[in-house]
Design brief:
- The complex is a heterodimer of chains A (257) and B (84).
- Chain A has 10 helices and no strands.
- Chain A is mainly alpha-helical.
- With 84 residues, chain B is an alpha+beta fold.
- A 3-stranded antiparallel sheet of chain B has the order 2-1-3, with helices on one face.
- In chain B, a hairpin with a 7-residue loop joins strand 1 and strand 2.
- The relative contact order of chain B is 0.23.
- Classes of the chains: A mainly alpha (257), B alpha+beta (84).
- Chains A and B meet through helix 2 and helix 5 of A and strand 2 and helix 2 of B.
Chain lengths: 257, 84
């Protein structure tokens, strides 16, 4: 069972794994919200502008709700939102590279929303943490419309013979799969009943969902050896400094009531 | 270079269509026309409708393509129910 730890050092292995994975999910939402914020002026119409704005708000809200849940592991709001630097952010590699075009933006948010929802869906039935299960369920219900937005745009973009959305998606898929870089590592969140699905199955579920829209056969790369479950990445942890500078919360007094 | 605005491209696609939105807050209320969105397909219409008309916590929301409405009093012309 989960412990209400007051300090990080006293966490059990399972609590540390759950804290790490929730950090990865919340940070993915934080960075994705930053992407929406930066892309907002490019909305193609008033209703598009409103939609991007709403998705940005949604992602910030989800990230902060999950950060709040991390309080169970002794993580304070101060730590989650204010004291971490670029090297501490655990968002997927998929969101490191800024959007190169409108179609690349659409392909990326489709992959990111799909990946985050896939991972979170495995917490909906957890009986070991009912608060987390309810939170996951609420976030997933709200995210449905985010997926409709990107799916609708992909369909619309494909009407143009010069569209590059499929090529963009192919490149982004390889980056997205880095989130499930080495699914053969021990998965104690599944074996201890916190997730109802192992990482290996979640990767397949993600590919199946993406495969309904894009050709996924080219994007299935073999796992790299340097993948770390705690950050769900290959290579060094953290996001580029330039990205962090754009998306970090800057004025604390504006954010806190 | 002067920017050329192509409204069809900006709205996403070759044939944007109006979708009429109906919603109700609870089961005691009738489904009521609350507005319209323009979109090139159902998925984008669904997302835009949900995000634009989020001023209430809707129990039910539906979309109807304007082209699907059969006019009676205005037979021969399309329905004119657009409100924004």
């Amino acid at each position: 069972m989960m412990t209400n730890a007051n300090s990080i050092g006293s966490l059990s292995e399972i609590d540390r794994c759950l804290r790490d994975e929730l950090y990865c999910i919340a940070d993915a939402k934080l960075v994705l919200a930053g992407w929406y914020m930066l892309t907002l002026p490019n909305g193609r119409s008033i209703s598009d502008f409103t939609s991007i704005c709403a998705m940005m708000q949604g992602q910030y809200g989800h990230a902060r709700a999950i950060y709040q849940h991390l309080g169970r592991f002794g993580v304070t709001r101060e730590e989650a939102e204010w004291t971490r630097g670029a090297k501490d952010i655990r968002s997927p590699k998929l969101l490191d590279r800024p959007p190169q075009s409108w179609s690349d933006f659409i392909a990326t948010i489709f992959m990111a929303e799909q990946a985050i929802s896939t991972q979170l869906s495995a917490y909906r039935t957890t009986v070991t943490d009912r608060t987390l299960a309810r939170l996951a369920d609420k976030v997933l219900k709200e995210s449905r419309f985010h997926l409709s937005y990107s799916a609708g745009w992909i369909k619309a973009l494909r009407k143009d013979p010069a569209s590059t959305v499929d090529e963009d998606a192919g490149r982004r898929l390889t980056e997205a799969l880095d989130w499930w870089g080495d699914v053969d590592q021990p998965d104690i969140l599944f074996s201890d009943g916190y997730r109802d699905t192992p990482d290996s199955e979640l990767r397949k579920r993600f590919l199946k969902a993406v495969g309904e829209t894009f050709d996924v056969s080219a994007g299935i790369a073999s796992p790299a050896k340097s993948w770390q479950r705690s950050v769900r990445r290959n290579g060094n942890p953290g996001i580029p400094e330039s990205l962090f500078e754009r998306i970090r919360f800057k004025n604390r007094e504006l954010a806190l009531p | 270079m002067k920017k050329v605005i192509d409204r069809r491209v900006e709205l996403g696609g070759d044939k944007p269509e109006f979708y009429e939105i109906f919603a109700r807050r609870n089961s005691a209320e009738p489904l009521t026309h609350i507005g319209s969105v323009e979109a090139p397909n159902e998925e984008l219409a669904e997302a835009r409708a949900w995000f634009v008309y989020d001023h209430d916590n809707w129990m039910e929301m539906c979309l109807v393509p304007l082209s699907a409405i059969i006019t009676i009093t205005e037979r021969g012309s399309s329905a004119k129910v657009k409100v924004v």
